[in-house]
Fold these 4 entries.
Entry 1:
Amino acid sequence: LRLAVLASGRGSNLQAILDAIEQDRLHAQVVGVFSDKPNANALRLAHERAIPAQYVDPLAYADRSAFDTALFARVDECEPDLIVCAGFMRILSPAVVEAHAGRMINIHPSLLPRHKGLRTHRQALASGDSEHGASVHLVTAELDGGPVLAQARICIDSDDTEESLAARVLRVEHPLLIACLNEWQRGYFRYAAPQLLYRERVL
Ligand code: GRF
């Protein structure tokens, strides 16, 4: 399974992917790492392992769609089977999303469809939720709105804060992502139409 990873920051999900590959828990190869931030830790992680890594500067392009076109031209060059958005903090334009439909996933720190967008831990606390977690979903034109492939769930305790929830969700999202990538590699997920997903063993 050839993976391209898009990340803007810390890169702990990329680290989890690289660890799983190195420890033989995931049969995949990271063929490219891409970032819109020059100092993203994800780029450093890739450089350390001689994985092709590219920073693409959004300010070098006239608008969002020009940036997305340039970014995805580079992504496509490395011929990934699957594109993983792991903390890529930009909204993608519909054209590139559609061109990669069914081949691009995102990990989001909430139990979708609850709490789309930013500050999901704050949103969960403000809503008085008793449960929270992380979701892996297919990327569609609707922000955090594509079909959910899998979720990991945690309980919210009465003394939880945004920070404590963020830490606990992060601990479950890494194994969740690896489990999804393994299932993808085994052919469990297929994307049939924008909002239609079936999950079965494809031989
Ligand atoms: C994670 O919380 C992920 O769910 C969200 O962005 C964060 C990325 O973390 N989409 P990292 O950069 O992988 O450490």
Entry 2:
Amino acid sequence: KRSPAVPETWTRTTCVYCGVGCQMDVASAGGKVVAVRPADHPTNRGHLCVKGRYAYEFNHAPDRVTTPMIRRDGAWREASWDEALDFIADRLRAIIAESGPDAVGVLGSARASNEENYLAQKFARVVLGTNNVDCCARVCHTPSAKALKAMLGTGAAANCFDDIEIAGAFLLCGVNPTENHPVVGARIRQAVLRGARLVVVDPRRTELAELADVHLALRPGTNVPLFNAMAAVLIEEGLLDQAFLAERVTGFDDFAAFVAAYAPERVAGDCGVSAADIRAAARIYAGAGAAMCFHGLGMTEHLQGTEGVMTLINLALLTGNLGKPGAGINPLRGQNNVQGSAQMGCDPATLTGSQLIKDAGPRFEAAWGCRLPATHGLDLLQMMDAARAGRLKALWAFGYDIYLSLANEAATRDALAGLDLVIVQDLFLNETARAFGTVFLPAASFFEKDGTFMNSDRRVQRIRGAVPPPGQAQPDWWIIQALAGRLGHAQGFAFDSPRAVWDEVRALWPDGAGLSYERIARESLHWPCPDEDHPGTPVLHQSRFPIGQTAALAPIGFVPTPETTDETYPLLLTTGRTLYHFNAGTMTGRTPNTALRPTDTLDMAPADAAQLGLADGEPVRVHSRHGTATLPLHVTAQVQPGQLFATFHCPELFVNRLTSTVRDRQVRAPEYKVTAVRVERG
Ligand code: SF4
């Protein structure tokens, strides 16, 4: 039920949900958020989706935790900030004294600001003395960042959302923007309705697939051979940008010889599509003048996630779809500030600005007045492995329900159960806190603090507090500084505002130096923006790549996932998100959006439901080699026979009991997109 309160104040801020980063005005009255309306801004042009516009009532939910808590003898008890911080400081000192600083890990958050993520990784490195710091980018787009950085030199989207209206064609790969990035999805839809060509590569018949010139409904796990086949067509049919190849690309001859083995007629059957459709898709992508590629987690959350993105970059290099408006390889980031959390240095191998420790380390040491830790840090998945092995003893997680959202619940449970200290910092007692938390620190929401977010197209935007935090809740940046002070590092953690933190970020990150609070308040700016007179860089790679004048094509062989169907597990399950909810449901699950979509479902093709004698709406038990979950069945022609789709927003259904331990070969993102299962009446 909507609050009848009359707005007293309107505050301009940035939506916290997806990586589009829509600008919105938040109405407050009596210290509460009472309405949200879209802002007319280049990012969202006066639109918001159902999440940004209506999913705000979580902020004042009755079960919001507003006091620090410590679990003693199995029960949560309220504590003062002094007690909670002293408790944590004592435990961390003891763990580090006994096991060393690498026995502790820190996880930043896509819901925290850039400034807070910067402080989180600085805390890990300076206060704790470890590079064990990571964030949720590990499980979604680290494969994109790795592939883009390795091949082109910048681990972020090549172009910006403003290019959607310029592109002559779209190649959408493993991404469903209508549901997961709705304002961008609507802009793509409008562009297609005006005449832009559209290729959709997705196992499901999504709303945009209905509009597509070609829909390649591939078998999950076959991205690499499919995009190799498109590359083979480009070369065989001469659909190449010869000038771009001559000036900007190396390795053509070896690459051409390599992909000749992936001719569509050879691989189409394995990919579950027709050779003619692969050829048609390649012709559309190459023939548009400028074609914009967007990809999502259907590309990255695979055994070959990083390598799959590399096969997309090959297509852009062959056709010259880089370094010009209306083109580019563009990961659509799932969570609003996931780009920012990794970019700020919540990554074991890189410092702020994705600068390698080995290159930028001395500058940071001089600025921070310390020696950086010498040992290589652990990423999130390696932290879980180390916890299971007894080497990691403590974990501090900001705004991240790792127990619910990591793949393979059994493995995550084993890891978290082995820790001596689990610090959860969030708005609510999430599943990680309920099952494994030692200390809970109540955080301010994005409605209640200042700072910046970084969206999918490298735009840095302000968030502004519209209401005060409830009870004793505090912004993450305050909490990090308070704990640093307890551990003897008040100096270096004495910022009086997020703006002061951001100024330190700008001093250490050359590509962000021009992004002052004053400028981003009045201009829409994309990094790189190296000084305050620089206009920002909406399109990367226009005259050269950061790695040099040329980029190299990458021959990528196909390595099938071990997660295959057999007689016992004959169906392939893919997991993903829905329009109405966001990730673990911690926020949207406490809003009226639950009335629009009350539960996760298992989506099944009508033919499979008929064969199994199952009816729409009935509960079904899903068994994988890794676990079992019970969900209501949703019979829909959106999924193909032999395949299933489930969302993972409801804690009580816990879909990650099913998912496997398979990880990306290069950066260890879990393979959420392919799990062999069987289904029976629940
Ligand atoms: Fe928020 Fe994304 Fe919806 Fe925009 S499209 S309102 S950023 S969830």
Entry 3:
Amino acid sequence: ETTIQRIAAGEVVERPASVVKELVENSLDADASRISVRVDGGGTERIAVTDDGIGMSREDVQIAVEEHTTSKIRDIDDLESGVATLGFRGEALYTIGAVSRTKIRTKPRGGESGTELRLVGGDVEGVGPAGCPEGTTVEVEDLFFNTPARRKYLKTDSTEFAHVNRVVTQYALANPDVAFSLEHDGREVFSTTGRGNLQSTILSVYGREVATAMIAVDGGDAVDASGYVSHPETTRSTREYVATYVNGRYVRSSVVREAILDAYGNQLAPDRYPFAVLFLDVPADSVDVNVHPRKMEVRFGDEARVKTAVRDAVQDALLDNGL
Ligand code: ADP
Ligand code: MG
């Protein structure tokens, strides 16, 4: 293994939260209905993501950890027609494996036997049969143990955990039909039922105080915008709780954020931000999500139109509630 590979790996895997993001996306792509995320030490000591998805055979898992291998694209047509799965670059498992001690336990649905594969710094140290339930557990220990320069950039455990929490929350809110659970240092942070709607998922992740202060948004003229925003008095001092999704995918969009804040006008105290979970449905050809896949930024064809539509939809919701 060369230094060049390690640098490339570091670009995809910046911190524990990026590992969690990739593993959760893999679980969703694998048709999981339950996903549990357990981290220790903010994820720097250990990250374990368990799902009840389709699992892998012994051969599958051996191929999956190689560079640029994916089961999600078969040919160039798949690429051109737009890929429905979340991951398709085939790099995540390989790059995560290169900068940690990783253990994968997996068993295909309806399969007879499970497999355990262990990787240390990118090298396969062992593959063998394992007793495990159907689905997959990927356990990542000692992230960046072999790349001290990267390790040095990690922040405190509580900061790293805050990033992990935000990632799992984003996916839980976008997938109310999947039961998510998040544990830190052996303590449950939240769990969702997987049978719920958006409202009950908000209750699970943000708690009763926030959930009961949420106002439904359902409308938008030029753009279909729906979800929930909080009462102007239920706020936080960071914008971290404004989660926006475009066509089901979590994105960052300063246009949408500004539109939401504009809708509140002067009802928000200075430097306070609402909770918001807002889903926009836009024609695929009016949005560019490939600006930077890892930064999850989007660009709209007609920003002014989106901004007005979102602001009006949120404003209508607030007005309907006498605000
Ligand atoms: P990609 O997601 O881009 O295909 P990854 O490196 O993340 O690349 O994963 C490689 C392959 O490993 C996937 O294409 C998939 O076949 C398999 N895989 C990874 N995680 C899981 C999982 N949780 N359940 C089932 N298969 C998985
Ligand atoms: Mg992937």
Entry 4:
Amino acid sequence: IVAALGKRSVVLVGMMGAGKSTIGRRMATRLRLPFVDADNEIEAAAGMSIPDIFEVHGEPHFRDGEARVIARLLDSGPILLATGGGAFLREDTRQRIRDKAISLWLKADADVILRRVRRRENRPLLKTADPAATIARLIEARHPFYEQTDITIDSRDVPHEKIVEEGIIAL
Ligand code: S3P
């Protein structure tokens, strides 16, 4: 469908609540690529939920598992991969994504993110007294990494199809 893609995957990057899974699923259908959600794959590999992995084993353990799962998925052939918000912060993961995929940052404002991540029990990083402040802090720390993606798409409150279309055109 998009010839420029060749055998490369498409990897969606960005904060929780930016719409990576929703947009990713639709984009995958359009591109005729299998959609894979890295968080789901990590849970399947670990046999436990992400909040449980954080609680039982801690974040560093989760991050190592996440990097391994992403490496395996990118080796498995062209896919559309939605990554967890922290994955692109690792140098080895960024390098693998650069080698095998086109990366696309779904960029969302803090207020949009806060509105979308109401079910915080699924997001261990937001189990804090002041989620708005946590989101602001994460955005500040992460944007320099997200800016290293190949493509940036604004994930604002417009119909999903419009964002999908923008992403496909940019590939
Ligand atoms: C995380 C985001 C989550 C999940 C984990 C950590 C992060 O994925 O991987 O809770 O560090 O931002 P989503 O971005 O899909 O919510």
